[in-house]
Amino acid sequence: MKRPILRVYHVAIICLLQASNAWPAMAQQQSTAPTNNQSVSEQEIPEEEATPAGQVLVDGRPVLTVYEQVANLTPEARAQGIERRIVALAKETSIPAESVRIRPRDSWTEILTDSTVIMAVTDADAKATGKSRQLLALEDAESIRRTIQTYRQEHSWRMILRAIFKTALVVLVLLVILWLVRRCRLFFRVRILERIQKSTILKEESAWHLSIAYVGPMILAIGTLLRWLLILALLEAALTITLGFYSSTREISLTVTRWLFTQLEMLGASAVNYLPNLLVVAVIAIITNHAIRLVKLIFGQIRKGDVKIPGFYPDWADPTAKLIRMLLLVLALIVAFPYLPGAASPAFRGISIFLGVLLSLGSSSAVASAIAGVILTYMRSFLVGDWVQIADTMGEVVERTLLVTRLLTPKAEVITIPNSTVMSGPVKNYSTEAKKAGVIFYTAVTIGFDAPWRTVHELLIDAALNTDHVLQQPAPFVLQRSLDDFYVTYELNAYTDTPREVLNIYSALHRNIQDKFNDAGVEICSPHFSSLRDGNTIAIPGQYIKPDYKAPAFRMNLAGAENNGANRATSISGLSPTNESPTQ
């Protein structure tokens, strides 16, 4: 199996070498060809440029040709005038076609009827055809007679009715053919769909069934395209034939038919001329395909761990393979671009410039995200499946592409973050250390100074050890983070190897802390103490206090001290009442 493949490669390489050797010679011949053509053209250019001949056409049929310019009339203008006179004569049914005759002159020969001169045959016209003037005039007169007779026959009511009948017959045949095409399409479509469904239902699928499942939809698509091409071809043929039945539209039919076959001929010639370039493009595509397959094979082994490169991590294998594949495709496109059809046309260049400007103006953010994605890949900040926090979003990395990173939050929300945003801020990865000794999570409580700190430590550690997903080793520990004015802030730190369960861990830990403290009779609160000044004496130096200054008393409202529904106020100074309230 390998030898035929090697032979194909050898043949392809030999063809390329031969083509590369032949191109310089062709280029040299093309460079020398203009000089040779110049010299030949300089020898063959006459002093006076030849005037194109004018062909007389009646209802799309050629009648005769004139070659000489008479007075200010070009051959084409002469032909148009002759055509008008022949048509006018054919419409005059009172003038018989046999009345057309010739009348020799000294320098020309007239073709005329009893009352109208149709045209003149000159010596230059006869010289261009290689005949005598008399013989050419007789032939042209006979052509005019036949044209007049044919015109009168085709414009009669009998011929018009016959054309209508032929048109109806063509339409009937067209409808029958279209019906047959539709029936054939339905027949083959049903058979192919049945085969595709059977191949998908079978449990033991062979190579034949697999090929039908994959090739079947492609065959249906190609069949649809061919069907529409056939329908368009049938419509064009029917229209051309129908227009040919009527003398007034026969010229349109002939013009359309000539244009169609001219375009098909040009298309076929272009396809034949493009075959050498197609061979080069095919060789480039084959080489690129095998290079991509080789890259895929090598990096697939690196990803599996079968091939190890120092400093190259296995998770780099897929993105590196994608980058190399993209570079190979771009290189192949650059090499094959000159051989593509229409690559040098102004339209192709204009489209290329437009796409370049469009990409440069509209893809700045996409390019920044793509570059950031490549950098993040080789920075290894996080992998798919890691539990991370990016900016204010925490969740599991479910997808990382060249442009975006997607996180699945604990609330089952998928957050899409551009890689440029990821690069611009900090990334917290909780899974890196969780895979080793565990990652630390922490919570803080504030307890009053009256609770012994050793007891608080024991209760917090005991609550952590009784929580699911908390590691026994390394053991939890407590830090006294601050001694505030009225309480102590204790920070409980514990280890876990399942950071994605952090919300459930926090919830269970807080419940356990409450249970442990309640069982031990330790109150979880942050006490605050307030102190009142002894009286409201003004707080300024004594020398500034006036001799008759008297400190004001506190005004207090005693609950329950009511007399006839009115509250009584008691004024005290310090802790001694100055005015006693009446008692009940």
Keyword list:
single chain; 584 residues; alpha+beta; five-stranded antiparallel sheet; three-stranded antiparallel sheet; 14 helices; 16 strands; 55% helix; elongated; disordered N terminus; disordered C terminus
Brief description of this entry?
The chain has helices spanning 2-44, 75-91, 123-129, 133-154, 157-201, 207-244, 250-304, 317-336, 346-362, 364-379, 419-424, 431-434, 453-465, 502-520, and strands at 54-58, 61-66, 101-104, 108-112, 117-122, 387-390, 393-400, 404-408, 414-418, 427-429, 439-448, 477-483, 487-496, 554-563, 566-573, 576-577. By secondary structure, the chain is an alpha+beta fold.
| Side-by-side strand order of the widest sheet | 9-8-7-6-10
Order of helices and strands: HEEHEEEHHHHHHHHEEEEHEHEHEEHEEE
Major beta-sheet overview: 5 strands, antiparallel
In total, how many beta strands? 16
Helix vs. strand class: alpha+beta
**Distance, first to last CA:** 119 Å
Write down the Rg.
51 Å
* Average pLDDT over all residues: 79
- The number of helical segments is 14
The stretches of 5 or more residues where confidence is low (pLDDT under 50) are: 1-48, 564-584
